[in-house]
Amino acid sequence: MTKVAILRCDSAAKTCPAVGCVTAALNKKDTFKDYDNVELVTIITCGGCPGRLGLNQIKQLIEKHGVEVVHFATCMSALKPKCIYAEELKEEVEKMGAKVVIGSHF
């Protein structure tokens, strides 16, 4: 069972109920299709630009809850404007030991 967390844009979260992200994860569709078994541990927001609050939460999720993969929700890469901190956040999450997947659903 692969433990997954989804990181989403704080601004987008104000209008998006995350149904696309949750549905894709639970039904192993789109960017979740290659998992044998997936456990969606949580969905968090970045906490607002530049995303430091989200990084603190991800560190806890990795250390205390065994999260192995963090999906950056589609809102971080597909909406305009795109998250200007996404690449930096990705590097930091990978340093913590988790894999990063860009996108959640199509």
Provide a concise account of the structure shown:
With 106 residues, this protein is an alpha/beta fold.
Structure characterization notes:
- This protein is of the alpha/beta class and 106 residues long.
- The protein has a single domain (2-102), classed as Rossmann fold (3-Layer(aba) Sandwich).
- Helices cover 34% and strands 22% of the residues.
- The protein has helices at 10-13, 19-26, 52-65, 86-95, and strands at residues 2-8, 38-45, 69-72, 99-102.
- Strands 2-1-3-4 form a four-stranded parallel β-sheet, sandwiched between helices.
- The longest helix is centred in the middle third of the chain and has 14 residues, at 52-65.
- The protein is globular and about 35 Å long.
- It starts with a strand and ends with a strand.
- The model has no long low-confidence stretch (mean pLDDT 95).
- Residues 3-105 form the CGGC domain.
- It comes from Methanotorris igneus (strain DSM 5666 / JCM 11834 / Kol 5).
- This is CGGC domain-containing protein.
Keyword list:
106 residues; alpha/beta; Rossmann fold; 4-stranded parallel sheet; 22% strand; globular
Layout of strands and helices, then pairs:
Blueprint: E1 2-8, H1 10-13, H2 19-26, E2 38-45, H3 52-65, E3 69-72, H4 86-95, E4 99-102
Parallel strand pairs: 1-2, 1-3, 3-4
Rg, rounded, reads: 12 Å
The helical percent reads 25-40%
Element order: H for helix, E for strand? EHHEHEHE
Number of strands: 4
Domain CGGC: 3-105
Organism: Methanotorris igneus (strain DSM 5666 / JCM 11834 / Kol 5)
InterPro entries: CGGC_dom
Protein name: CGGC domain-containing protein
